[in-house]
Structure prediction request, 230 residues.
Amino acid sequence: MDISSEQVYEALAAKGVANIHHANSVITACQFLRTGSLMSRGTVDRNGLFQTKQASDDIDKKYGIWFDVFADSVDIHDRAKWANKYGPVTFVLDIKLIEEASTGRVWVTKLNPTKWEGKSREECWFSSAEDLKAYFVKGCFDQMIVFRHCGGILPFKDYLKEIILDNPKIKTEEDEVDYYSMAFGALRLSMTEGRIDVPLHKRVCPPECSCVADYQGDRVRTREMYLPKI
Ligand SMILES: [Zn+2]
Prediction:
């Protein structure tokens, strides 16, 4: 479980993981850019910042991972061909962030925490560098990289490579401004405020991606993801 960050980095790099990914809502992503740090859901909540509720929030609190920062070894939207439930903004970060995460420990889940009920610690988390080398699979959605005991704040400035923004193809009912353009502008402004200069790309979806249907099928949630009332 408590594997050194160097060993986690080496094991994942050996499996071909070059980048890690973190998806979030537009407003939370803007906050991250202004501060130059990813924040755990617990930290965002504690700071009184808005975030879209997730089904997994109570589970995260129950298992003591509410103040941990989660990342994936692949871009889930691209791999799964659906809208990432954590949000339309994807941060692409260099895997070296793991090695140099000096503020805490890096753990890797074996199972998604939503499946932890009744499972042992060894079934939930990778327990050694050997375990990781043998069983880590790039792109397995259950296997998440978790920055633990970092105070819920993970500075990323030197490691952020690019930001990918989804286009839900929806306009506001009030004034017909499209969500994508508004989100793009908000992210750009936050990058300027945070002195971050990386490419901000419109997502190019894989063939048969369902994200536009996903976004348009749940307009209340999509609105929260793009322009929450605060
Ligand atoms: Zn898509």
